[in-house]
Design goal:
The complex is a heterotrimer of chains A (368), B (297) and C (443). Chain B has 297 residues and is mostly helical. Chain B is 73% helix and 0% strand. Classes of the chains: A mainly alpha (368), B mainly alpha (297), C alpha/beta (443). Chains in contact: A-B, A-C, B-C.
Chain lengths: 368, 297, 443
Amino acid sequence: MFYREAGQFKSTYAADQQLFPIRQDRIAMALLLALAFVGVPLASITPGIEGVIDFNYWYNGVIIPFLIFSLAALGLNILTGYAGQLSLGTGAFMAVGAFAAYNLMLRVPRMPILAAFVLAGVIAAAVGLVFGLPSLRIKGFYLAVATLAAQFFVVWALTKFGWFSNDSSSGVIAAQKIVIAGYAFDTPVKRYLLVLAIVAVMALAAKNLARSAIGRAWMAVRDMDVAAEVIGIPMMKAKLLAFAISSFYCGVAGALFAFAYLGNVEPQAFDLDLSFRILFMIIIGGVGSVLGSFLGAAFIVVLPILLDIAATGFERAAGIAVPAGLVSNLTLILFGALIVFFLAVEPLGLARLWQVAKEKLRLWPFPH
Amino acid sequence: MQFFLEVLIGGLLAGVMYSLVALGFVLIYKASGVFNFAQGSMVFFAALTVVGFAEMGVPFWAAVALALAAMAALAFFTERVVLRPLVNQPQIALFMATIGLSFLVEGTAQLVWGAQVHALDLGVADEPIEWILDKAGMSISKFDLMASGIAAALVAVLAVFFNKTRTGRALRAVADDHQAALAVGVSLQRIWVIVWMVAGFVALVTGLLWGARNGVQFSLTFLALKALPVLILGGFESIAGAIVGGLIVGASEKLAEVYVGPYVGGGIESWFPYVLALLFLLVRPEGLFGEKIIDRV
Amino acid sequence: MFRHFGRPVAALLGAAILAAAPWARAQSEQFIPMNGYWVGPYAAGGSGVFGGYIDYINMVNAKGGINGVKLTYEKCETEYNNARGVECYERSKKKGPTGASLVMPLSTGITYSLIDKGTEDHVPIVSIGYGRTDAADGRVFPWVFPLITTYWSQATAMLKFIGMKEGGGTEKLKGKKIVLVYHDSAYGKEPIPVLESQAKRFGYELHTIAVAHPGNEQQAQWLQVRQIRPDWVILWGWGVMNPTALKAAARIGFPRNKIVAVWWSGAEEDAIPAGDAAKGYYAAAFNVSGSNYPVVKEIEKTVYAKGKGEMEDRSRIGSIYYNRGVVFGIVATEAIRTAQAKYGKGKPMTGDQIRWGLEHLNIDEKRLKELGATNFMQPLKVSCSDHEGGGAVRFLQWDGKKWNTVTDWIAADRDVVRPMIEESAAKYAKEKGITPRDCSKEG
């Protein structure tokens, strides 16, 4: 009833091609952003709220990592979802971003931190470009080998060569404090706002990119590369740009991972396991969808936490002592079962579920 | 020279062990086009089941039989719950479903058998054969030789199964073309159960051999990592490719670690196989035994 | 679609929000988070250590708590994963009337991630036998406690042990060849600077050989060892790397009683899978194995005899990991006790107060005897500047069935280790812009 576009007429091409062509979507998006940027922070500084909801926990433990992982998933989705190039090296590109940002802050005097993040992304993009070169010749699952090589090589190099970690005996970097124009981002709510701003801007940029000429070229390459080449899409440019831009996103995500989330990071934090987790996010969330990156990150990052919290809460409420490990194992089993279940319901990912729901909503309450 | 030979032979024997892991992946990929992420978990589950029963006092062979039964049950479960709802869905969804399956299997294995590590003794010591050590000064492990023998036997059995039996031929038909196979009356569901059972059997053998080598513990699931470069080099669909790929990866990574490693600080085993596979694929993008794909618009 | 999922999802969310909300403030309770791991590749270690830790806490409770203050705890599964570890920390830090007393992450990676957070939130991060070595400089790291002994201390003690086995002291190391076989990670690289600097001092020849994670194939590494023909191998492994190393050593015929390992390679779980190949192998330890100590007997009497207890497999009580957990429990409860002695007996302590307690922790032989832990662990005296305390290790030898203690406590070479710690900590302070505390002004 409320969600239908009847009566919304487009009189220009620009209006027809805007990011959110339906007015209700625009309003919903604006509301969501307002809630995230204003509502949540305001709620968290309301006096007396600590007794009800521990916002600092949700910021530090759940929301900030969720946003950062969403950004990384978005980066991977650009490469794998839009351009169709499978990558198992997301962790490596994130590591490059984190270590580059650290070294820029350390070695360049008076480096502004936002510039360091951007440059870290650029450096990650350069590394991504190098490991993307084989994509010009190798296709499909075989291409995964190039990004796997990146994954193992980068982590190995960061561990092996002390320069990257300023000769720290253990190879761990200690991310510098985030200070922008004299303003220190030192509390969870400030860090949340910073991360949110970066992620929101980059997500909108990605959505915009997907409908641009290059985005359409990527999708053509993904759907059938020979056909794309035949109709004159520059294969080399499209593929390499996908690698560069994707790695840029991952690099920025990696820098945030180190600076806004963990603080002290070792190269092993960016292992193959992380790359796989981010791949899981885009598959379960929806390949080739910006929204899917967020939903997938929520599923992989937040769901196990909720399950664990619910399990311990249940354990406490029931007042029974269960054998050690039982809860952990059951949670793992349940998580696995949920993955299978959601795939059986919607193999194209959670984003597709959302789309289906929207279509249903358009017809509601008179579906026939 | 003697040292070189020693490294080479050791590497080839290790390569056979990698091939074994890769074999499980190849079987399932061939028949259902699924990259089975859960293969490592299946290896772990199978070996843990054998050891778990054996430690309860069940005779070893009975324990192996029980583990086989468990793997068969897993195959039925997988077909019913994971594969059947996802028929005709994109490969990547099936891949993700096997990830869910791997969590299920890992959780169940630890729930049933606990998190403890176990030793497994197959009766052949992992020690150098003395007369080779005396004559040639090289240490070649008895256990590795036995493992290679078992792997060879396994490949032979699989080859006979695929080429000589009715079911095996049906499996190949499915691998070639799902729809054509269906059209001539091959039951896809039956084939999938069988192929997952065979993969479960391979996982059991792999788990026993690797478990005897390094102990039966959760890290058996990491073996999938060792199989990745082998698969990429040898192709996902070729049993011969898995064997040859394993040998190449095993030998080259050992030689690289020993001869190149010291100059760059060592530990290059982690990435060297991938770089090797990458260089190889640049020359031959379809892999060692993969079929050349001709693109048509 | 959402009709089907809406309700369970909402219920799950609701339960989660409620469960994560701060607790009702009960008086005279002290909350200790148990952020460990019971699934995954390292579950054998995690379940053992946290089993001992939780059992010890329950034993203290069964005997009336700490001056009447009951200890509460809650488990949180970290899966040995940084992100999950941080989440568990954030979830646990506000629980109980005074928040988390102290956090023991039992993972070097998670410890690194918590250094800044613990400092910000005033929660002591205690990493016993792992974590960041230079955090032993309490002037730079007021909230981080790598207690009892660090990797660098251990490396010097290992050299003393090798000298001892060579029939004398460290002077016997001259001209010897030592190979370090290490896990190629932040953790594995820790001893290299110490071993290198000592090589110059004692005149031994050091070779380092890296093993890529996870280390389930080490043929190339051990063939290199065979090529070098060292007198001793120092093994710095983790998880499956340990039994694999022992098997590979057996395969090239390297004598196992010439291998001395770090304590994370020296549990039953590391030796058992290697079977006979592990026989004769030495490992360092800051706690011994065996259930024949009064403290372990007491746990069996007060906890297990009542049908409670964390270990399903009772035979694991008294294992290296389990006893290590008991040591964790002793350190945690003694720190709270010390804090109570200053800030008021019978009251729950805050993070700040427990930090004071940790910095004034003094577990001497007399106290160890009272705790029933004589020879079980070493005496421990912590101070504002020294967040390590003990520094000594004992060496154990595997006889094919169990670990036997073969040496007394061997003290670390503090003259060597301390300046290195201070230098490294100073560098960290400079990078992070931290002004080290002046310990002479601390109470």
